[in-house]
Design brief:
Layout lengths: L12 H15 L7 E7 L6 E11 L2 E5 L6 H9 L2 E5 L2 E5 L4
């Protein structure tokens, strides 16, 4: 797997508006297709940050999908090294590139 950064073009404004709603629905257990809640510590604040992300499976491996390049949650994950994916029924710890 390559770690080359994809230039960030940022997420569209409607994503910023919908993420809090989708996050609440995921916390409540609503099925949202491949979307799960990713929680990672902020790289400067150290505070936990949660984002809805898509998880795709291929050949028995799970991949977190980021269509908008190297956005803040990607930078936080790379700086911190681990995250929690809230996949129903219970959250699972995850380490990138392992």
């Amino acid at each position: 797997m390559t770690t080359d950064a994809i230039p960030s073009r940022g997420a569209p404004l409607f994503i910023h508006a919908l993420n809090p709603l989708i996050g609440r629905l995921l916390r409540l257990g609503a099925p949202m297709g491949p979307n799960v809640l990713l929680t990672v510590r902020g790289r400067t604040s150290g505070q936990p940050r949660s984002f809805p992300v898509a998880v795709l499976e291929h050949d028995g491996h799970r991949y977190v999908f980021c269509p908008f390049g190297e956005v803040n949650w990607v930078r936080n994950l790379r700086a911190n090294g681990d995250a929690t994916l809230a996949i129903r029924p219970a959250p699972k710890r995850s380490r990138p590139w392992s």
